[in-house]
Amino acid sequence: ADPISSFLAWCGRAGVELSPKVRLSREGAVAGYGLLAAEELERGEVLFTVPRTALLSQHTSSIGGLLQEAQESLQSQSGWVPLLLALLHEYTASNSWWQPYFSLWQDFSSLDHPMFWPEEERARLLQGTSIPEAVDKDLANIQLEYSSIILPFMESHPDIFDPKVHTLELYKQLVAFVMAYSFQEPLEEEDEDEKGPNPPMMVPVADILNHVANHNANLEYTPQCLQMVSTRPISKGQEIFNTYGQMANWQLLHMYGFAEPYPGNTNDTADVQMVTLRRAALRRAKSEAEQQLVREQWDFLCQLEMVGEEGAFVLGWDEVLTEEELSMTLKVLCMSAEEFQEYKEQDGWEDDSEEEETSTLSNEALSRLKAPCKKLLYDSVLLTLESYRSDLRAEQELLDTKEAFEQLSRREQQALHVRYGQKRILHQLLQLL
Question: Which residues form a coiled coil (predicted)?
Fold first, then answer.
């Protein structure tokens, strides 16, 4: 049976309302399924409405009561375990009300997150991008959650779960499914500080829309339903894009399995690892005393929680996104021993002028940094570029030569988009400095 037809019939039963001006299709979408304009659309049109009863979450699953009772034992670092257990059950239960929804992803073979790539391929294609390290953490967490929370829960409910069916491999696929397709309702502003983020949920139809930074639709939340609304006029036949948030290409590939070709992703970023600045500062220290000073300055920055062994400074196209951390780190690492001693004694970091606190590290501000700070940041960017396996010029040639680019595998193409965007940002910073 055609998955779209049975899914649309299910939508009718579930109370999901689609505007007659839109259609779901594989044809004409940038990837997988997509939502297309069947007619001209104005700004502010409701494209579809999903009642909250049609959302698949830990509360609406047929085992919702069981998950509620066990909520204390299902706490985890990710906060996803209850939803994942609901999905494990609903995906494999032949009588599940959600089967037509799952038929759009029959075996999850469309999920091509880097967590499914062989380790050698991840290292070869993604070295320097921050993705291999993020995937290693994910895989360790998935293994831990499955063995310490999921398995014990399944063993205590053998009438519902079977570890031979609900395997670690299926669990891993469902984690990727939640990564790529779930939604988290934004918290009210007054709740942001007190509560953790809302748990994820699956939103049928909304999860079919593809993402671009320059999107043309937005999901709006009301107490009764969720609505996708156009944010600008859309021509007949055009694809309708949602936003998954302000995501850099490395985040898109890590969490969703794709990246946006340059220069489409205006939210792209590049990282300079914090420890790289320490390494650059130690390299330029001419004596043991100067090296010792750098180590003391680094320890001081760690105490202030400005830096850490695993942290990174995040650079956008127009400004530094971790401006406070980078400003302070450059300032402290470029102090003489006398200045550093005086700074510590005066609790100097509290006395910095308000103007300095509020100034953003825009590209223009970066070009006005003091010479020692410029040099330290410049050297750190060079060290960062060395961490990739290929250089910008070779990648530029690949992107410019259509035949060569088309001979690459899909994974090679997506990884190239990630590396190229990051290197463009880093090279732009070198020019500014």
Answer: none
